[in-house]
């Protein structure tokens, strides 16, 4: 990674030296570790961040994958939510794995860019609730109806951690790889400028078509394949 992190204060907690990189109210963003990550798409730098979110009473984690020099251009950025079923188990019920691969491939092709990878499985409802939502979808509900039947909003994700990470590394303008208008809105609300919306459409599997159709029709995602 060739961009510079802002100057950090350091302190020692429990004998471990950490970098305190941001404080905002009760929240602090901490860079935990940074390492090389050669991938099938190219060699990224992988940085782990944590933030104690006292509002939620928990510690939030996210990964930042960066590649190349982003000083002279607005970076290509993907903010991606973890999908264990798609990315680890190879589920064809959604397009998450394809979107992540598309983003990493596009960044490698361009020679620079970054991915913020967040632990917000199932649009933020968590893995077990996502499985319950899948079970309801097996009975005929769509993804939005299933979330509502379980008492969740359509999309429970909070992109403030991604915004904090981007701002921390000095990124305030992005070319966002997404089909999701709510994600654009969240970044703008967080003070970032989205100068371009780059489509992130992976080839759909037949099993994902109804899910994608719901995302398009009920959630306003800009999808062209249907
Ligand atoms: Zn998925």
Describe the structure.
It contains eight helices and nine strands. It is α/β, with parallel strands linked by helices. The chain has a single domain, classed as GTP cyclohydrolase II (Rossmann fold), CATH 3.40.50.10990. The chain has a nine-stranded mixed beta sheet with strand order 1-2-3-4-5-7-6-8-9, with helices on both faces. Helix 4 crosses helix 5. The longest helix has 15 residues. The radius of gyration is 18 Å and the shape is globular. Bound molecules: zinc ion (ZN). Zinc ion binds next to helix 1. The site of zinc ion (ZN) has 5 residues, from helix 1.
Continuous helix count: 8
CATH class, please? Answer: Alpha Beta
> Which CATH-level-2 architecture?
3-Layer(aba) Sandwich
Beta-strand residue percentage: 25-35%
Question: In this structure, how is the largest beta sheet organized?
Answer: 9 strands, mixed
Task: Round the mean pLDDT to the nearest integer and report it.
Answer: 86
How many structural domains can be distinguished in the coordinates? 1
Distance between the termini: 38 Å
- What is the CA-based Rg, rounded? 18 Å
Strand arrangement within the widest β-sheet reads 1-2-3-4-5-7-6-8-9
Low-confidence residue ranges: 1-26
Q: Quote the CATH topology.
A: Rossmann fold
Write out the CATH superfamily name.
GTP cyclohydrolase II
Task: Using brief descriptors, characterize the structure shown.
binds zinc ion; alpha/beta; 226 residues; single chain; globular; 9-stranded mixed β-sheet
């Amino acid at each position: 990674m060739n961009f510079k992190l802002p100057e950090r204060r350091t302190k020692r907690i429990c004998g471990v030296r950490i970098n305190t990189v941001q404080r905002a109210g009760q929240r602090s963003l901490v860079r935990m570790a940074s390492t090389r990550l050669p991938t099938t798409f190219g060699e990224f730098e992988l940085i782990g961040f944590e933030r104690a979110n006292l509002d939620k009473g928990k510690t939030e984690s996210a990964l930042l994958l960066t590649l190349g020099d982003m000083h002279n251009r607005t970076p290509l950025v993907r903010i991606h939510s973890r999908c264990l079923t798609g990315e680890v188990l190879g589920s064809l019920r959604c397009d998450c794995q394809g979107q992540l691969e598309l983003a990493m491939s596009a960044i490698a092709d361009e020679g620079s860019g970054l991915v913020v990878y967040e632990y917000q499985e199932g649009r933020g409802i968590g893995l077990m609730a996502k499985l319950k939502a899948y079970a309801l979808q097996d009975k005929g509900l769509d993804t939005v109806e299933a979330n509502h039947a379980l008492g969740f909003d359509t999309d429970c994700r909070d992109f403030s951690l991604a915004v904090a990470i981007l701002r921390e590394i000095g990124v305030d303008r992005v070319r966002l790889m997404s089909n999701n208008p709510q994600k654009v809105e969240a970044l703008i609300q967080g003070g970032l400028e989205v100068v371009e919306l780059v489509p992130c459409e992976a080839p759909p599997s037949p099993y994902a078509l109804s899910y994608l159709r719901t995302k398009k029709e009920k959630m306003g995602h800009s999808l062209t394949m249907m």
